[in-house]
Amino acid sequence: MTRDPLSAVRPGIRALRAYRFDPVPEGLRAKLDFNESPADVPAEVKDAALAAIRSRRFAHYPQFGAPRLRAALAASAGLSPDQVVASNGSGEAILAAVSVFAGCGGTLLLAPPVFSLYIQMAGIVGARVATVPLAGDDFRLDEEAFLARAAEGERTVPLLCSPNNPTGGTIARSLVRRLCAVAPVVLLDQAYVDFAEEEDDLLPLLDELPNLVVFRTLSKACSIAGLRVGFAAARPDVAEEIGKAILPFSIDLGAEEIALSVLARGEEIRARCHGIIRERERVAAALRALGARVAPSRANFLFLVPPGGEGARVFRDLRTRGVLVRDQTTVVPGALRVTVGTPEENDLFLTTLKEVL
Q1: What is the rounded distance in angstroms from the CA atom of residue 212 to the CA atom of residue 184?
Q2: Whole-number Å distance between alpha carbons of 227 and 101
Q3: Which of 7, 47, 185, 329 is deepest in the core (most CB within 10 A)?
Q4: Can you tell me whether residue 110 is helix, strand or coil?
C-alpha cells in the first residue's frame, strides 16, 4: 500500500485556487479578455526572426544569461545590461523577486483589486499577504495607509502594479520615493506603462532609489505574449540576487530571436501604442455615454460597471454573441474588463453591448 502524495503538499499550496479559464467559445468574433495587443508582429519581422532561428543549432542550449537579449532590453529601456534580469515573461521575474525578498515568512503588501497571480505567487513562496484596498469609483490608493503598512517589519515588501491591472490607474513618483524611504525594497510591475504618460514611467527613478525594482514585459506593447519575454530592472547587485531565483536558460532561442527582431522596431511599437491610446479614449467616452461607470485608465484596457450593474449577465450575453471580455464580478460587484482592440473590434464590442443592455 502506498501513501497519498497529496499529504506531502504544503497547506499553503492546497489552499490556493488554480489559475484557470474557460475554453475560447466557438464563433468568436472579438477576443478582448486578456489585454493582448490587437496587432500581430509584422510578417517581415517574423521572417527575419525565423531566418535567425533556422541558423541556430537546436541541439545546443541558448547562450548562458542571454547576453544579446539583455543588451537589447537594456538599450530599449535606457539601462546598462547589468541592471537587467531577462525572464520568461515578466511573471517569472516577479515570482523570483517575491521569493528573494518576501519568501519563507515575509509579507507581500498589495493594493487590491490587483493582478490575481500576485496572491498565488505569495502562496508558492511561503509569503504572507497584507492589503490596503483601492477605494472609490476611480480606485485611488490611500497613500498614507499604504505607507504606514509598508513601514511595518523588516520583511514587508510592497508590490504595486502601475498602470494597475485590472483598474488601469497609476501611482505618482512621489509615492514611490516615500515608499523607498520606509520599505527595504519596493517592487513595481509596469507591464502596461507603454500605454501611459511619460511621467508614469518609473525606470528613471532607478538612478536615485537603490531599493527599487521595476518589471517590464514584451507581451503587451511588443505583441509577443505568445513567446514570453520580460525583465526585471534594478541596481546591478540587486539584479544579481533576483537572477539567482531564475533557472538557467529559461528563455528559449526562438523567443530570444523574435524579441531581438521586435525590439529593433521601437518607432513602430510607439506608434502602435499611440493608436491604442486613442482608441481607449474613444471607447471610454462611448461607454460613459451609455451610462457605464468607467475607471480612469492609462493601460490598454478599461475597467467598467455597465448600466444597471449586471456585469455577470452582460458578460454571458456578450460571450453568447461572440464577444469575449473579462468577468471581474468576483473582484468588484458588477464589473467587467475589456481590452482595447482594433477599431473594428471596439465597434463590434460597443454595438453588441448596446444590444444586450
Answers
A1: 9
A2: 27
A3: 185
A4: strand
Q: Could you tell me the CA-to-CA distances from 341 to 36, 42, 224, 275, 347 in Å, in that order?
A: 8, 17, 15, 10, 9
The Cα–Cα gap between 212 and 223 comes to 27
CA distance 193 to 273: 10
Q: Are 32 and 325 in contact (CB under 8 A)?
A: yes
Phi, psi of 182 (to 5 degrees): -115, -25
**Phi, psi dihedrals of residue 104, rounded to the nearest 5°:** 60, 50
For the CA atoms of 283, 77, 134, 36, what is the dihedral angle to 10 degrees? 40
Contact 307, 292 (CB under 8 A): yes
Q: State the cell numbers at 289.
A: 455615454
What does the pLDDT look like over 165-177, one tens digit per residue?
A: 999 999 999 999 9
Q: Is the pTM of this model over 0.85?
A: yes
